[in-house]
Design brief:
This is Olfactory receptor. GO terms for molecular function: G protein-coupled receptor activity; olfactory receptor activity. The chain is mainly alpha-helical. 77% of the residues lie in helices and 3% in strands. The protein has eleven helices and three strands. A three-stranded mixed β-sheet has the order 2-1-3. The N terminus is likely disordered.
Amino acid sequence: MEPRNQSSTSEFILLGLSENPEQETLLFALFLCMYVVMAMGNLSIILAISSDSHLHTPMYFFLANLSLVDFGLATNTVPQMLVHIQTKSKSISYPCCLTQMYFFHFFGIVDSVLIAVMAYDRFVAICHPLHYTTIMSPRLCGLLAGGPWVFSYFISLTHILLMVRLVFCGNNKIPHYFCDLTPLLRLSCTDTSVNKIFVLIVAGMVIATPFICILASYVRIIVAIMKVPSAGGRKKAFSTCSSHLSVVALLYGTTIGVYLCPSSVRTAVKEKASAVMYTAVTPMLNPFIYSLRNRDLKGALKKLVSKKIISSS
């Protein structure tokens, strides 16, 4: 018999962030605004980078990829939550649940690895400035940007293949606003040890390993910056890394709390709070973090806006 046919659960109920109708109205308005800001910010960065030839460099190429990933990550979760609040229907079919889970992990893994790739780019730019264009060749940039997408495809697919072998019976209520792996595993009435082991292995590969690589890159960067004789040179070098460090803190501060902390200290409320940071807040803030202190990107965004105003007038 097929594993899927053994399951008596054809749909799940997403309990959302709150079951209080008054709070749900506030959450709808808040998340709608956050999603609109996120979409406008990330799509504007992609358009600005693609339309300005001065920004066709490895750093901005990776940033455009990050903006695309952030847009996908938020779009996979937030619109569905808004629909559920508006329609008062919180059910999601089994196939849709697995599809949402697939894309959540797909974009999440690309996000994590891409952040490490951007740290390597900063390391080469600061520690090997004379060889930067040689090292960061178009071919290497293509591999560094495309590799995480291919890698994530297979890892996310493996997660789903391991999920379809599970049987879900009885309780079908997920205390979350989207189909995340950990809450869904708790509902299974069959052995989930293989899934949990794979989660730990993947967490080590896509969270711990990139984080260690980022730390190693920044240790080398700090050492190189401290050797710069002028205070102005040191300040300029640090400023090129500050935006990336802010994103690293936002990303890994939430993902480590969700996937690497012991299950005994995790609660549904903490998981939902971390997920909100990861799927909504961080994708919304990233465009501001990268553009506010970046003169070239701000200039490209101003040009993009002025072109839109002229074309519409």
